[in-house]
């Protein structure tokens, strides 16, 4: 997986963030990262192919939700801490009202 672009925090808009969170797989990725912190980009229990998982991670990165880093041959993703400053409580609120199988 190559390095995904990370938009400057000043250019992130709420509608793009909410659009990225509207997909159940992406919501599941965000919930896992909120609970566990950083993970390898292939370490999610999503029942999708690796190329589809990569697509979802790219969408989250492009919307400004995730930061992506490479270490050797591995890629890691985590929630962007600056997102909480820009949209206080947004991720917690979205996850609170997510379906129980996602928010667990």
Q: What do these coordinates show?
A:
The chain has a single domain, classed as Arc Repressor Mutant, subunit A. The mean pLDDT is 89. The chain has six helices and three strands, in the order H-H-E-H-E-E-H-H-H. The radius of gyration is 13 Å and the shape is globular. A three-stranded antiparallel β-sheet has the order 1-3-2. A hairpin with a 2-residue loop joins strand 2 and strand 3. The protein has helices at 14-21, 24-36, 50-62, 81-86, 90-96, 100-103, and strands at residues 39-40, 66-71, 74-79. The protein starts with 13 loop residues before the first helix and ends with a helix. With 104 residues, the protein is of the alpha+beta class. The longest helix is centred in the first third of the chain and has 13 residues, at 24-36. The relative contact order is 0.23.
Which architecture per CATH? Orthogonal Bundle
Could you report the average pLDDT, rounded to the nearest whole number?
Answer: 89
Secondary-structure content class: alpha+beta
The CATH superfamily bears the name Winged helix-like DNA-binding domain superfamily/Winged helix DNA-binding domain
Query: Mind summarizing the main beta sheet?
Result: 3 strands, antiparallel
The value of Rg in angstroms is 13 Å
Which segments are poorly predicted (pLDDT under 50) over 5 or more consecutive residues?
A: none
Measured as a percent range, the helix fraction is 40-55%
Compute the number of helices.
Answer: 6
- The topology string of helices and strands comes to HHEHEEHHH
Strand order of the largest sheet: 1-3-2
Overall spatial form: globular
In CATH's first tier, which class applies? Mainly Alpha
What CATH calls the topology is Arc Repressor Mutant, subunit A
Strand content: 5-15%
Distance between the termini: 28 Å
Q: How many separate domains?
A: 1
The tally of beta strands, per DSSP, is: 3
